[in-house]
Amino acid sequence: MYIPTKLYFCSMDIWYLFKGIIIGFAVSIPLGPIGVLCVQRTVNKSWRSGFYSGLGAAFSDSLYAVISGFSLTYIINFIRQFQMEFQLVGGFVLLALGIHIFRTNPVTEIRKYRRKGSSYFQDMLSTFIVTFSNPLAIFVFLAVFAGSGIVMKISEPLDASIIIFGIFVGAASWWLLLTSLVNMFRHKMNLRVLWWFNKIAGAGVIAFVMITLLLLLINKPNLIG
Fold first, then answer.
1. Distances, alpha carbon 153 to alpha carbons 85, 146, 148, 183, in Å
2. What would the pLDDT profile of 1-32 be if each residue is shown by its tens digit?
3. 0.85 exceeded by pTM
4. Residue range 117-162, pLDDT digits in tens
5. Alpha carbon of 207 to those of 70, 99, 136, 176, 202: distances in Å?
6. Domain residue ranges in the chain
7. CA–CA gap between residue 217 and residue 60 (Å, rounded)
8. Residue 15 and residue 154: Cα distance in Å, rounded?
9. Nearest one of 176, 124, 171, 164 to 28, comparing CA atoms
């Protein structure tokens, strides 16, 4: 059966976009420290603050998808060479995040937000920096691309761009869904519940980081020697 060339390429573009969306959505689902931060900002500030924070993570994931998709050997080898150092730096960044969330006073946050609003660009930028401080996400995308059979070529920039755009759309869709669900219930929370939420969320991030660093030290005992 003859399929017109234009129709064939159109269907391939849609397929690349669909695959990218699925990958971006799936990679974003695990509710790690960044997810906790987005939920905390949605609860303490507003839905927009949480969603824009999620967009920062989506931008970071898209950038790492570019690096892993094109297999930029120099960058990947550099990260492999200093993998432990990157894990330590990323761990301390997340630890600072956990302490910040734990110490957050919901009363102060609400007053500050009502007084001068929220800089959504700052929310997005801060989350991008925290997410980007963990470049080991590159290897997640390497595994996902290998498992899904996706190969991006510099010689085919349009196909690669569609995949990357799909990944961003998929990741952004997850953060839109998550923050929207949280926002549905945030108005039912009083200040005492918000206070406990910050304590539990912050403690959860701190515990996550401490366990990760402990496992790192157990596997690499020479780091403390």
1. 30, 14, 15, 40
2. 444 545 444 556 788 888 889 888 988 887 67
3. no
4. 568 888 999 899 888 888 778 888 877 777 766 666 655 677 788 8
5. 35, 11, 20, 27, 9
6. 5-224
7. 27
8. 19
9. 171
